[in-house]
Each structure stands twice: as C-alpha cells, then as structure tokens.
Specification:
Radius of gyration: 15 Å
Number of strands: 8
Largest sheet: 8 strands, parallel, barrel
Structural class: alpha/beta
Strand content: 15-25%
Low-confidence stretches: none
Order of helices and strands: EHHEHEEHHEHEHEE
Mean pLDDT: 94
Number of helices: 7
C-alpha cells in the first residue's frame, strides 16, 4: 500500500468556528507533511481571499490551490472547482471546464470534484490534473447526499487522472487507487 499523501483543506468558516488562525492551520498542515493546501472561503469578498492566499504563499512552500475563485489563480498554483460551479459557467460541463482552463492556462493545476462514476468518466474527457472523489463517508463540514463508502476505491480506478478522496476521510483510511487524502477539520 502506498504512503498517504495529504491534501489539506483549509476552510475559513471552520477555522473561524473553531477559533483557529490561518497560521495555526499552516503549521498543522506542515507538521503532517501536507503536499497541498486548498483554501476555501465561500463567504468572503475577493480582496479578503486574495489576502489569505498571499499570506499562505508566504508561509507555506507546498502547492496552494484556491477553491472556485479562478480569477485569483495568479496568487496560487491552481484552482479546484465543483460540479455546481461548472454549471454556473455553462450547462455543458466540458465547455465550462474549457473556459476555466483557458483562464488559468496549462501551467496551473486544475482540479474537479466528482461524486459518482458518471462524473469520473466525464472528467476523463476534460483537461484537469486531478479529481476529488467522494464523499467517502458523512462529514459535518459539508452537506452530503451520497456516500460512496467502500465503492469509492473502485470508482477511483476508472479515473485517468490522479484522485483525491474527499468527504469524511481520515488519516488512517487505506485505498488502492487514491493519490491524496483530503482532510480539513480532521487535522484540527
């Protein structure tokens, strides 16, 4: 079994709820050897998110991904988008992903959330670097309608991209076809 590779999800709402500073989160991510930090903030204006990205970049040497806000890609290494975010751009998710890729260019990382085999197979036809697949189990940090459980690993095997397990993932979970464990509040 491969070594666990950590993708740390830094959700500003959870940090605020738990009284954890961005610096404390960065230190926790470093201590666990996180290769990637994704910064997610669904509520703040763009200037606050930009400020946080600049701060993380100054204090963290791994890959930095921003959630949704592809207009801020110049301040990080890439962007992660969800299915709903693609639909806001175009009902045809492949066209929407092409639009995003044209903005962020080939030298940046592009990730996409997937929740089932159909979305994984669709992502195989898109110019993305990795997919997030889940939810593995229920999580308190995001409303989850479908739990993949043990089927997650089987679905991951159908991806031509690197796969990050999302949703209720823990450090001690073991998978055969997963590159990254995405852990957010579980680090705190």
């Amino acid at each position: 079994m491969a070594k666990i590779r950590l993708y740390a999800l830094c959700d500003q709402a959870i940090l605020d709820e738990r009284g954890v500073s961005i610096d404390e989160f960065i230190e926790i991510a470093k201590r666990h050897n996180a290769e990637i930090i994704q910064y997610r903030n669904k509520d703040a204006d763009i200037s606050f998110i930009k400020k946080q990205l600049i701060h993380i970049r100054k204090n963290y040497n791994g890959f930095l991904i921003v959630n949704d806000r592809y207009e801020l890609v110049e301040f990080c290494d890439g962007v992660h988008v969800g299915q709903e975010d693609l639909m806001k751009i175009d009902k045809d998710t492949k066209k929407a992903m092409s639009v995003i890729r044209s903005v962020i260019q080939e030298d940046k990382i592009l990730g996409l959330s997937t929740h089932n085999e159909e979305e994984v197979l669709s992502a195989n036809e898109m110019n993305v670097n990795y997919i997030g697949l889940g939810a593995y189990r229920d999580t308190r940090t995001k409303k989850v309608t479908d739990i993949l459980g043990e089927n997650l690993d089987n679905i991951a095997s159908k991806s031509k991209h690197l796969v990050a397990a999302i949703g209720g993932v823990k450090m001690n979970d073991r998978f055969e076809n997963i590159t990254y464990h995405v852990i957010g509040s579980g680090l705190l």
